[in-house]
Amino acid sequence: MLALISFRSVSLQRFWAISALAAAAAVVFLATPARAQEAADAPLRPDTMAARVAACTACHGAQGRAGTDGYYPRLAGKPQEYLYHQLLNFRDDRRQYRPMTHLLSGLPDDYLREMAAYFSEQHVPYPPPVRPDVSAATLEAGRKLALDGDAARGLPACASCHGATLGGVLPAIPGLLGLPRDYIGSQIGGWKNGLRRAAEPDCMADISNKLTPADIGALAAWLSARPVVEPYAPEPAGSLRLPAECGSQAQR
């Protein structure tokens, strides 16, 4: 598929130029006494997908394993269709984050699908979780929302859509574990505040609008504190009956 995409595309040339700069910066960063051998063991060969997505891994970590700053999320192993539609959403301004929108502006759908396929095929170990500095009561509140929901407020459990292990469901529902606490909280807040949107009916926006700030904090704390137990993978397509109609899933 990559061979079918014109190398004369201005947008692709810009994306590759940014990737080349990011790759060079990564080499400089890694070429410290502690990391020099690691850099030597895994050089980026030119004209490979790994080299072309260096602009992505500069923030999201090698192979998309997550950034080190506690915000940029893991891309590795996410469902391909989920990643593809998030790239579309950033490019088409349905999901608000200016650096991503600028980076992806003008890139063709086929190339975004290639990028999504690359990251979905990366399987790297998850780091141990960081226990958040919150009370046991807050963690318990997050656990109940994630696993049981709150029927009185019309809140389905996270597990009712994202799977019993919270590992996601094919083809396009992502896993929720192994993500930074700040990222989880900011994304739920983004749904709630209209900075992140999906096809109507936007079930995540509907759910997020029912969550209080305390709910969001509790969910982010509990989810980020959960260890990832391997094998951690999305459940098969059709294995769950969603509790609400979701336009983003109806598109698949």
Superfamily (CATH H level) name of the largest domain: Cytochrome c-like domain
Distance between the termini: 21 Å
Helix content: 40-55%
Q: Which CATH architecture of the largest domain?
A: Orthogonal Bundle
Mean of residue pLDDT values: 84
**Number of distinct helices:** 13
Low-confidence stretches: 1-10, 20-41
CATH topology of the largest domain: Cytochrome Bc1 Complex, Chain D, domain 2
* SS class: mainly alpha
The proportion of residues in beta strands is: under 5%
Rounded to the nearest angstrom, the radius of gyration is 19 Å
Number of strands: 0
- List SSEs in N-to-C order: HHHHHHHHHHHHH
> In total, how many domains does the architecture comprise?
2
How would a crystallographer describe the biggest sheet?
none
**Top CATH class of the largest domain:** Mainly Alpha
Shape: globular
Binding site for heme c 2: 158, 161-162, 204
Binding site for heme c 1: 56, 59-60, 100
Pfam family, one: Cytochrom_C
GO molecular function, one term: electron transfer activity
Written overview of the protein:
- This protein folds into 2 domains: 48-119, Cytochrome c-like domain (Cytochrome Bc1 Complex, Chain D, domain 2, Orthogonal Bundle), CATH 1.10.760.10; 134-247, Cytochrome Bc1 Complex, Chain D, domain 2, CATH 1.10.760.
- The chain is built from 13 helices and no strands.
- With 252 residues, it is mostly helical.
- The chain is globular, with a radius of gyration of 19 Å.
